[in-house]
Amino acid sequence: MKDITEVVKSIKKLPPMPAVVNKILRIANDPSTSAKSMIKVIELDQNITANVLKLCNSSYYALPKKVASLSDAVVYLGNQTLVDMVLAGFSADMMGGESNGYLMKSGQLWEHSVTCATLAKEIAKAANCSDAQIAYSSGLMHDIGKVIMDKFLAEEVEEISKKAEKEDRAFDEIEKEVIGFTHAEIGAMLTREWGLPEEIINAIKYHHAPEEAPEGSKVVYVVHIADALSAMFGFSSGIDGLAYDFSATALDVLGIDEKQLYSMAPALIETVFNATNMLG
Amino acid sequence: MNKRIIVGIADMSVSTSQDTELVTYALGSCIGITVYDPLLRIGGLLHIMLPHSFKSKPDEEVNPYMFGDLGLPLLFDEMLKHGAMKVRLVVKIAGGADRMQKKQVFNVGERNITFVKEFFHNCNLKIVSEAVGGTRSRTVIMDINTGKVIIKSPGIRELEL
Ligand SMILES: [Fe+2]
Ligand SMILES: [Fe+2]
Predict the structure, then answer these.
(1) Pairs across A and B, CB distance < 8 A
(2) What domain count does chain A have?
(3) Using the beta-carbon criterion (under 8 Å), do B98 and A258 form an inter-chain contact?
(4) Separation of B105 CA from ligand 2 center, angstroms?
(5) Could you report the predicted ipTM of this complex, rounded to two decimals?
(6) Could you tell me if residue A172 is inside a domain?
(7) Model confidence over A3-57: pLDDT tens digits?
(8) Which domain holds residue A199?
(9) What does the CA dihedral A88, A92, A98, A104 come to, rounded to 10 degrees?
């Protein structure tokens, strides 16, 4: 078992969430926000601006012309996509590293997260969830706790993985048993510290157990499914692989059937795969 | 050092170059199928996502390598085109992992495995070795010179199929 106060210390040591990201999340949902005012906010952060432009010019968006400025980007992609990209750019910095705990190559956690976010957005739309943007952000951040868990897990990871396999139990269950907490719980602590909206924090905290979430939000179910699909179709997040439970009620809660998901997920994932050099 | 040809998700490659290896990364529920003609040393690798093809819209163009029912015949065609003979083909499969199987939903891996096995059974070809099921992701590497197939998963030793 590890000491949770050590986790709190590591969270405090992380750089704070860039003010720009927080601000963007707040104004994104306000329909009166103009493209111009959004660009003004983003431009404050050079790093993020650079990442957004890189993403715009990646094969993923296949734009007809090179995008040289944020105002070009808005013209081609619209406000919502710009918000997505600010988050994706930020999280690339956070999650781009390699992981010794979960045995991920560099970039792997970010790829898993972007895939999950992309799927979450589409699933939210298919399920008539009011907020596809929240679904995207939650999908992007759902495994952020792994960044912190990484060093707490490094020594025990083989033990955890073997135990999960032998006893046919979910990886997060064993995480809790051996370490004392799960990557989902740590992710929620971290994003609370960052001041993210409650709905995103809950989606992160319960992404492996959506039934336990406070009632009312469908986003946690959306992320649960998007996470499963990402891992099923080749974007897993390391040694844990697919070793998680799948909620029997998730599809019913959202009112979508499995077939519907299989008719959209593979093509989306293929697109993401073809753009694995998104930030390269 | 061998040259690497990367077979993407829903993708296929057949090669006759002896200095080449075919690689497909991180199969989850997807299945990687390798076929090899040891006499001519021709190898092929297909990475499918789902067993059966469908169109979401009638005029939609589907990628045949995404699906077992369309992709597998194409893998054969391509092998035969290069001179391989069906009776000589050595077939190996890997992948088909699933979320924990307590609830029998989202079992694409299992359905993929069943489909691929049935397919080869129906065309009278034996699958000589396999690494399927479970919850781990798998990377498949096939050496065209020897036909050797290696499986890598995070956290465990690599194994030869
Ligand atoms: Fe997770
Ligand atoms: Fe995940």
Answers:
(1) 105
(2) 1
(3) no
(4) 18
(5) 0.92
(6) yes
(7) 888 888 888 888 777 788 888 887 877 778 888 888 888 888 888 888 888 888 8
(8) 4-15+97-279
(9) 10
